[in-house]
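Final report, closing paragraph on structural work. Over the funding period we assembled a curated collection of sequence-structure pairs, and we close with a single example.
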Amino acid sequence: MSVKVSMNVNGKAVSAEVPERTLLVSFLRETLNMTGTHVGCDTAQCGACTIHLNGRAIKSCNILAMQAEGGNVTTIEGLANADGTLHPMQEAFRQNHGLQCGFCTPGMVMSAVDLVKNTPKPTEEQIRELMDGNICRCTGYHNIVKAIAAGATSMAANP
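Its predicted structure, as stored:
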């Protein structure tokens, strides 16, 4: 059975008919062709699929598309400014080498933005604790933590 889902994604109204069991991550990637949101584990363990739904970071592999009906979704593609300049957290990841292969980076960045929104001046310990739901298989996390701290400072300076 299929259902019609409608929501705003990165500021644009979208709707489509999808099978009722379609995950939000699949809707974004396969229906809307927004492939910045990655599927890493399908069990909400790795955080590669993290997006913002109604202003909160969620793992989009753990929610059906129809559960986001009428919601506001922001993906990594919608984080940068309209003129193409990177969001302060994206820029901080770039400047601080907070990525290696890049697979986990979109989820890391989306989680980090939410972290800083809720904890504007996080300590290193808070960053490490609050990013616990995001897994990187390439790095030792040092540069990721450094990037998030730099992004927090930049976000505070450019609200």
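The chain has two domains: 2-78, 88-157. The longest strand covers residues 2-9. We thank the funder for supporting this effort.
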